[in-house]
Amino acid sequence: PELSFTWEEYLKETNSIPAPPSCFRQSRIPPTNDFKAGMKLEARDPRNSTSVCIATVMGMTGTRLRLRLDGSDNTNDFWRLVDSSDIQPIGTCEKNGDMLQPPLGFRMNASSWPMFLLRTLNGAEMAPATAFKKEPPKPTQNGFSAGMKLEAVDKKNPHLICPATIGEVKGEEVFVMFDGWRGAFDYWCRYDSRDIFPVGWCALTKHSLQPPGNSVTPQRQPIPSTSPSKPSRRSMQTSLYRLPNPLPPLPVRKGVRGR
Ligand code: MLY
């Protein structure tokens, strides 16, 4: 049996098909990630979409950046793709005649914003304009259908990308269901959401892909030889990693009666 998740095996096992790449608002050839941790850029405030703020790249995985708004606390980090239209080089805002805004929940008194801005930008490493990639166009229509497989951001744990299935299609929206998580993380989003990806995206961009829920772990769990404990409901519902059902017969010791 498979010891780790692979789409090839999983698609066979679930007798399902991947959503065609043309359904997604993602580049067919993923962009390169030319950012570095610590670089600063301008980002739309996710909690106040009318304001553009200064953000720092706190980390990266694949083509995604973990961002923190300067002057905000460490509990509101968010993720954006390197080709997101929500991010731009420092100076873009001013060039457009706009003003950089303090983030929602700015740690200091609003009156200290102008000085804070000067200080945060002074000597900062700014992400070069070449690191920002053009956002791909929207597909012209919602091409998804129920049952198609994809890779999707877990919005409750947005550093994670997981195997998912389209549960329903309604106009411009799709219902994203996380495989093996009993609906706890499912959500509706637009068909052109930047948080959904074709099967194989994580492998292409070197982003980790979570295994479906209810798996024991990606690696086979050693079974303790002593004190066998009742298997958890979680491990019993494992699909990829389950034991064959029915269980194979126990080996018979010949010539021994009773015990
Ligand atoms: N600590 C959480 C993580 C759940 C992640 C679910 N995603 C992968 C759909 C939990 O175990 O509930």
Mind sketching the topology for me?
Elements: H1 7-13, E1 40-45, E2 48-61, E3 64-69, E4 78-81, E5 87-88, H2 92-95, H3 113-121, E6 149-153, E7 161-170, E8 173-178, E9 187-190, E10 196-197, H4 201-205, H5 233-236
Antiparallel strand pairs: 1-2, 1-5, 2-3, 3-4, 6-7, 6-10, 7-8, 8-9
N-dimethyl-lysine (MLY) binds next to loops.
Structural commentary:
The protein has 259 residues and is α+β, with helices and mostly antiparallel strands. The protein is 11% helix and 23% strand. It has helices spanning 7-13, 92-95, 113-121, 201-205, 233-236; strands spanning 40-45, 48-61, 64-69, 78-81, 87-88, 149-153, 161-170, 173-178, 187-190, 196-197. Bound molecules: N-dimethyl-lysine (MLY). N-dimethyl-lysine is lined by residues 154, 157, 160, 162, 178, 181, 185, 210.
What share of the residues lie within helices?
Answer: 10-25%
End-to-end Cα distance: 33 Å
Q: What low-confidence regions span 5 or more consecutive residues with pLDDT below 50? A: 215-250, 253-259
Structural class: alpha+beta
Strand order of the largest sheet: 4-3-2-1-5
Concise summary:
With 259 residues, the protein is α+β, with helices and mostly antiparallel strands.
Characteristics:
single chain; 259 residues; alpha+beta; 5-stranded antiparallel sheet; 5 helices; 10 strands; 23% strand; binds N-dimethyl-lysine
